[in-house]
Specification:
The complex is a heterodimer of chains A (about 375) and B (about 120).
Chain A: E1 4-11, H1 22-37, E2 46-50, H2 54-58, H3 63-71, E3 78-82, H4 88-101, E4 107-114, H5 121-128, H6 144-159, H7 163-178, H8 191-195, E5 199-201, E6 204-205, E7 215-223, E8 235-244, H9 259-272, E9 281-283, H10 289-298, H11 307-312, E10 323-324, H12 329-333, H13 337-353, E11 365-372, E12 377-385
Parallel strand pairs in A: 2-3, 2-4, 9-10, 9-11
Antiparallel strand pairs in A: 1-7, 1-8, 4-7, 5-6, 8-12, 11-12
Chain B: E1 7-13, E2 19-20, E3 35-41, E4 43-52, E5 65-72, E6 77-82, E7 93-102, E8 105-112
Parallel strand pairs in B: 6-8
Antiparallel strand pairs in B: 1-2, 1-3, 4-5, 4-7, 5-6, 7-8
The chains are: A alpha/beta (about 375), B mainly beta (about 120).
Chain lengths: ~375, ~120
């Protein structure tokens, strides 16, 4: 294994891109990342594209090859689309990292993309529900908001949880979104706004849920000798871990945790040789407010049972003990499903370069966490500023 | 409605004895491929529940409905439904009252046990 660096990043805004095709979004983000890395296209060895539902929502597959074609990449570059529901982008990133760290190639392009906002809510819900265990959980009529409604009730029983505490996560991430020019729906929300929003899957309400989003994000990963071509500070990827968990709800014996996250985090901390308290900034998978509470504990950056109270006390704010989702997270930046895992890396890279619009002072160590389906796939990356 | 809970048919691996809610492709505990049907009491405790107010397309005409995760006394966790607005707290004792056919599958419907 050899050190791998992020030498270039790119992203579209997250939101509505009604008049742009899915490949156009992917190409914009990729072209930015390649330009920033300062490498030639023939120096890339592989392209991994993360996408979840371009088939059902856009009627398009073989997206990796299509995007490579539109970018004019040479035909000898292996182009692969990977799918792991909401973790598609994270898995694409990890496979590109594997290719560079094990010396298969010196540079790799990762792009995550999704286009969703043109479809109706029912179509989007149905497409997203493909990530459920439809054989075993499907007949009950459970949905993803429903999963987190269940988790909320289980968590409240085990640790105690109030509407105010969960709303603190929403208020924080929505406010952070106002400071991120890429974010879809930053907002200055009150507890009353959140508590009076429509009930979706009790006790989960509308503002507890991330929106459907169009967008793409891309990064170029490089071996050390290729980083010199970039004007930007290279960001060292210390670890990239991927794990699996149960697709079936009933196989999650504790609904207050996702085993895949716990295992990925442990693997990543071990590989990086750090402890959770060394992490300055975290972009984690807050597809729902409740998810941030669980994820922050599973990642070990917040003590078990205190995810909600830390949010309420501002300890996960930009000025807190550990900054969680300064980008606004999925709740506010948006969740273009296949792009999310790569978008998180984009945000953490900007933090570690010290150039983020919602900068965490002195951020040196960053972590991204991308969780797919019912916790069936997870990736955790740990990155460090290289100077 | 009868006071006695309905029985639930589950599947016991002939090799290792692991219980499965539905016939698995192979036993996930030991890769065994032969299973016996076994009746267990549809009685258990409520692990969690939620009210689905935005169902997927296939369930559009059914919403809102309450989905429940139940730990059966027999030692198996199942996902099913619970009578609307019936559940009050995690840990409630529940019993299975009937099955509902959904497509080609059947799901268990529970209600809170009132003594």
């Amino acid at each position: 294994m050899r050190p791998v660096y992020i030498s270039g990043i790119g992203s579209t805004t997250f939101g509505r891109h009604r008049h742009e095709s899915i490949e156009s979004l992917a190409v914009q983000a990729s072209a930015q990342a390649i330009a920033e890395a300062g490498i030639e296209r023939d120096q890339l060895g592989v392209l991994y594209l993360g996408n979840f539902i371009s088939g059902p929502l856009n009627g398009k597959e073989v997206l990796a090859g299509i995007v490579a074609d539109r970018l004019g990449l040479p035909g000898n570059i292996a182009c692969t689309k990977v799918e792991g529901a909401c973790a598609s982008g994270g898995i694409a990133f990890r496979h590109a990292w594997l290719a560079v760290t094990y010396g298969m190639c010196d540079a790799a392009l990762v792009v995550g993309v999704e286009k969703m906002t043109h479809a109706s809510t029912a179509q989007v819900t149905t497409a997203l529900n493909c990530a459920m265990d439809n054989e075993l959980d499907g007949p009950s009529g459970l949905t993803f908001p429903g999963l987190y409604g269940l988790a909320w009730r289980a968590y409240a029983h085990q640790f105690g949880l109030t509407r105010e505490q969960v709303a603190a996560v929403v208020i924080k991430n929505k406010r952070h979104g106002l400071l991120n020019p890429l974010a879809q729906m930053g907002a200055d929300l009150s507890l009353e706004d959140i508590a009076s929003s429509a009930m979706i899957a009790d006790p989960l309400q509308l503002f507890d849920c991330c929106p459907a989003t169009d967008g793409a994000a891309a990064v170029v990963l490089s071996a050390e000798h290729l980083c010199r071509t970039s004007d930007k500070q290279p960001i060292h990827v210390l670890a990239s871990a991927q794990t699996s968990g149960a697709p079936q709800i009933a196989k999650h014996l504790d609904l207050c945790t996702f085993e895949a996250t716990v295992r990925a985090a442990q693997q990543a901390y071990t590989a990086a040789g750090i402890t959770p308290d060394q992490v300055d900034v975290v972009e984690l998978h807050d597809c729902f407010s409740m998810a941030e509470i669980i994820d922050s504990e599973d990642l070990g950056v917040v003590p078990r049972g205190q995810g909600a109270s830390w949010a309420e006390q501002g300890r996960t704010d930009v000025l807190g003990d550990v900054a969680i989702n300064p980008s606004g997270g999925l709740l506010s930046k948006g969740h273009p499903v296949g792009a999310t895992g790569v978008g998180q890396v984009y945000e953490v890279v900007r933090q570690l370069r010290g150039e983020h619009s919602n900068q965490v002072n002195g951020a040196c160590m960053g972590l991204t966490h991308n969780l797919g389906g019912t916790g069936v796939a997870c990736t955790v990356n740990i990155m460090r500023a290289s100077q | 409605m009868s006071d006695k809970p309905l029985d639930l048919t589950v599947f016991r691996c002939q090799s290792c004895g692991a219980l499965h809610e539905r016939v698995p492709l192979v036993c996930t505990a030991c890769l065994g491929q032969a299973f016996d049907e076994q009746a267990v009491a549809g009685r258990g405790t409520l692990a969690a529940w939620t009210t689905i107010r935005k169902p997927p397309l296939a369930f559009r005409d059914q919403g809102p409905y309450d989905v429940a995760v139940v730990d059966l006394v027999a030692g198996l966790r199942v996902t099913g439904r619970i009578a609307s607005q019936d559940a009050q707290a995690v840990g409630d004792e529940v019993k299975m009252t009937h099955r509902e056919v959904v497509g080609e599958e059947q799901i268990c419907v529970f209600e809170v046990e009132r003594s």
